[in-house]
Amino acid sequence: MRFGDGAPVTAYAGDLVSQLGPTFTFQQRDTRHPGLDGARGLAVMAMVIGHTLDAVLSPTVREDIWVQHYWTCRGITAPLFLMVAGWAVVAALGSKPTAARDTYGKRVRRALLLIFLGYLVHWPGWSTVIHMGLTEKMLTKVFTFDALQCIGFALLAGATLLAVTPGRWGRTAMLAVMTVGLPLVSADVRAMSEGLPGPLTQLIGSDGFSRFAFFPWAAYFFAGALAANLLGALRPGVPQGLALLVLGGGLFWFMRGQPQDWGPASAWLVAYRIGQGMMVLGFINVLPRKVSGLLAPLGRLSLWVYVLHLPVVYGWSSYAGLSSRVGPTLSLPAGLGIGLALLLGCALVARLGTWLRDQARPWRTGSTTLEASVGSLGSRGS
User: Quick check: pTM over 0.90?
Assistant: First the structure.
């Protein structure tokens, strides 16, 4: 094929590339971090199977030593989701000084979507709302605060702070203060929330309310953002993975030597889980790309798998879920089978939904998705 003067198209393309410089490419760059989607995929797998087992395993099976070990390991799932979300937000900013301000509106919209979906999956139904009336008890039930809302509010706070904090070192200091400060003040802030309206108490945190309150759970988001900011100069993959393994292993080892406190507002527990989360991220990063890539497709669908599986397991509105229809009656193999089937089914539905969305909006195909820039999600298990 030639233009009117007879020069081939390839010659024009070559001239254009030479003028734009060696970094120019006609192909869209892959801006996704090679380890983040794999970490999300591992976390969402543990989340769905963990929720299913929690809903259907019989009390006798729960007492098994291996199941108890699994419950202990499962506690990293929600912190890992939050850390990946924070990492993804900072990694997406790149080196452009004004990136945080330029993308602020998009971040706010995504945060509001996460908060809306988080409250939606806990909707108790109109019959419950009408029966309870306009009371604080009803508002507390309608505005049940869970991990997805925590990610949304953390993203909202993080995007705002990143947009107003100048310079790389200023951003580093801000993220460090939030990572360390939130757990340290959580016990006092939660104590001061006593007597506030139920929805606000759940957000802030108080004994007997949300297990994923902003204080101290948002610290995991800022810890992931801080790690991304500090390690951004390293190449994704093995270099970043080794750094994460060293930092996470050192923090984990140090915290194991400190007095243990497994309370809901424990600063020790937050640091302990951050160390574990960094080691998991490091392990996924050092894996060969072909191995971590097996989990990546599931990681990219993690938000929608989260939204889809919760009503199936725990019910939604007036529809009963597995926890009510089956109850704690099954053996471990049966529970694992149901969990894997649910994971596969939700992933297929989510993939079909994203495909239909892409067909309806072809101009958006290939753009960064919600899961890529926000991270994903949380879990009921802790």
Answer: no
* CA atoms of 341 and 296, how far apart (whole Å): 19
Q: How far is CA 55 from the centre of its chain?
A: 22
The count of residues in the chain is: 382
For residue range 248-264, what is the model confidence (pLDDT) as tens digits?
Answer: 999 999 999 999 999 99
For residues 266 and 349, what is the distance between their CA atoms, to the nearest angstrom?
A: 38
Contact 217, 82 (CB under 8 A): yes
- Comparing CA positions, the residue from 64, 22, 24 lying closest to residue 333 is 64
Q: How far is the C-alpha of 340 from the C-alpha of 45, rounded, in Å?
A: 8
User: In this structure, how many other beta carbons lie within 10 angstroms of the beta carbon of residue 314?
Assistant: 18
Query: Rg of the chain over CA atoms, in angstroms?
Result: 22
Instruction: Name residues whose C-beta falls within 8 Å of residue 287's C-beta, 6 or more positions apart in sequence.
Output: 38, 241
Q: What count of Cα atoms within 13 Å lies in the side-chain half-sphere of residue 195?
A: 3
Helices (H), 232-376: 238-256, 267-286, 289-300, 302-314, 322-325, 332-360, 370-374
Q: Which two tokens stand for residue 364?
A: 């958006």
